[in-house]
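FBD domain-containing protein: structure, please.
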Amino acid sequence: MNNHCSSSPELGKDGKRRREGEGGDATADRFVENVLSLRHPFSVRSVSYAVYEHEEEEGEDEEEKKFAQFVKVIKYALSHDTQQLAFKLSYVVEAEYGYRFSDLFGTILNCSLKSLELGHVYIDSGFGSSGFQMLTTLELVLCLLASDQDGEFDPFSNFPCLKNLVMSHCRHLDIDMHGNERRLKICGPQLLSLELELVSSSNMEIFAPRLRFFRLEHDLESLNFSKLTLPSLDDAVIMINDEVEFMEGNEGSVRQGVVSLFQDLSNVTTLQLDSVTIEDLSSTFEFLEQQASPFTKLKTLMVKGDTVPYMLLNYFLKGSSSTETAIEFV
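Here you go.
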């Protein structure tokens, strides 16, 4: 538990359970309640609240108390002109996919938040209509994204200042109860940096006309892009974790998926791959070498490893108009 309230406008709470005799969660909870009951005349710059562990089989009353405290922390932050809020839960009893954003945050007309980190929160339709007009940095970890409405879900379209977005180990619920497919759209007119780490979605569209940096760590089975619009992209880091395997009837779709991904990154001047990605793409080398290379602007190919197979190297370099494309081993 970290408490910076006495000397600086920051609030920190680590709700980690301790062994018997070490104070336990009760002490941490009392600290939070005491802080929230104070009437601070100043703004609180940063609020960090994390619950890492949880006793099993807590009663319904105890769970309601926990939820009430979560809401109090969030309201405290929003009412004290907080600029940075980190709210991370590593457990959930009340709901399988996490507490709904709408239930935790309620209706937000406008707030001063510039940086928001959420862990294990159910991102529902209320997220997209929230009043985060000044938000520039957003990180979602272990979150489920699902709209209550059919069709396209675009949770970031109402964030006019969003420049940096990180999504890690998140899952998009892309099939509704009637079996209809939902598309997840990341719309960021001002977005400059986007990182997707092991995000699961069978139908994702990205529209980010000003994006300069894109980091993607995924496997081809769990993430499928329907459309990527990244005309200003300059720097891309691609990590494919699972080996590309051909099964009966899927050869064409797997190969085309790899080609389509690289075509959508055609504007990059710097591309970074790691040795695991190169190894996992080995089954597509011959096919890729036969394709026209989309990388007409590539100036630097960075490889985390010792070697690059000739067929793959030829695919990345043969389309470049640069007379001296650098290959860097890092």
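Notes: The two ends are 39 Å apart (CA to CA).
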